[in-house]
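Peptide/nickel transport system substrate-binding protein, Lentzea flaviverrucosa. Tokens?
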Amino acid sequence: MRRTKALPAIALVASASLVLGACGGGGGGSSDANGGDATVAEMAVARGESADGYTAPETKQSDQIVVSTDKAFTAYNNATEDANQSYNTFALVLTQPGAHILNGNNKYSVNKDVMESVEVTSKSPQVVTWKLKKGVSWSDGEAWDCDDFYMAWFTQSNSSKKADGSKYFKPAGSTGYDLMTGECKDDQTFVGSFADPYPDYIGLFNNDVLPAHILEKNAGVADITKLNKDSAAADIQKAADFWNEKWNGFTAALMPGAGPYVLTAFEPNQSVTLERNPKWVGKPGGPSKIVLKAVPDPVAQAQALENGEVAVNSMAQPDANAATKLKGLSAQGITFGAGPGLSFEHFDIQMKHPVLSKEEIRKAFFMCVKRQDIIDKLISEVQADAKPLGSLIFFPKDEGYKDLYAEKAKGDAVASKKILSDAGWTQGADGVFAKDGVRASFRISHTDIPRRKQTVELVQGQCKEAGIEIKDDTDPNFLDERVSQGDYDVALFAWSGGPTKSDKKSIYETGGGQNWQNLTVPAADEAFKSAVSQTSIADSLKYFQKADEEIANAYGSLPLFQMPNMWAFKGLDRVYFQSYYGALWNANEWQTK
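Tokens:
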């Protein structure tokens, strides 16, 4: 999932990580489309999908399309713990193909343009064989082949460690890859042998397959497939230095594409440009050029669409004012869509913070937050039936969902004050509780997204009544620079991911690649370990439920709400905001009206 910075927020689609966040997804929703236009349900399914998988269809080609989103693209390697975020995923989905595509109904289809098959070739022990299609190449002419899969596995498996136990590579997550031993049988065949069963293997190699030949050439590595945990430390370090650091920003020679599009231009903090890939093995189609432009203000995005400056609003951040404006523009041919996604807005508490490390402070903070009030004021205009989220692992419609936070976060200032009083805290003349010279005061850190600043303002008022002082810490670079360093008291952001649950492991397990809050819950660690090694997804549910309960009882993270998807467009036949990949997931199929 993506930081929507994936589970995206927004860390990897399904298995290795989440991404920091922004987005949402899922079937259902609403649209103001005029009669004759595609319905939301139709938009959620790619035209090229069939029972056998996905193959890019014949599509009428069109000229440049400008798409707005909330924040800018920052890195070509979105699998590292520092770079991983939804806004990179949005730009990379059509340039870095994977084994599967994920549609708006959260259904995986084998990407038949680049894959022959993905099969379990042995059940005990579990062995999965990824068979790549011959003739697929990167835009620089080099083959897209097993070397690239091997590098994705090796860099994210944590199989190679330094003498002191630290990691060479710094992936956002390793779940699934860390259970596997990978091997290239030939140029088109990657075989993964699992030490324990891993039912979510379908989520591997979907948004993290990078060009191994680029690393080999520039890092001085002769053959990435010859590297393993027993290789010379200097050789592994050379590969790690490049993989961890050299695919940030944009350098054309280092960043080819193997999908329908390739990145061709980059304006830091502003935009990234995609153009059709002349080496693409599939059917060409869609816009000749896509400019993905960062516009932090959602209302400004809506205004740009109304003015014809952009053709698509791909809004990872739902905004009530923008939704109201867009809903009123249907007569101008603008289609608005919204619906519950697979991202969740939440507070993460830094467990090493001198104040928040005290359980009674965390409990009192949870109790004073009025989540429904936040939703009513900031989200209901986008999705009228939105409710507080009661789980960090499950969404309300998931099998296994239980509301674990209704009693912990009642929005009751009186009860919050009692928690602190019972623990020996006393209210000072300024109304703030204190004990042993320590005040019940901390920051909430977040990016400069208007809705998040409004959230903090609401919580400040709610918790002031409970004798808790909250300071606003707005930082435009919070997701890009600080959150992965654990540089916060309380972090406000969203995780975005795919439909599987295993991607939560890297966030909440002790020492997990995305556990930036330093949460340690041994019982949850054991539950996660059991969950990801069951023979079926159904068998894993009770263990994910156990992990969910244990994390809730630790008062480490407070879920606020399931993030709605929100998007709008004009002049195109059909656009849909997919949970993890944003609006561009099938932009190669877009056709102008």
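Residues 341-564 form a domain with the Dipeptide-binding Protein; domain 3 fold (CATH 3.10.105.10).
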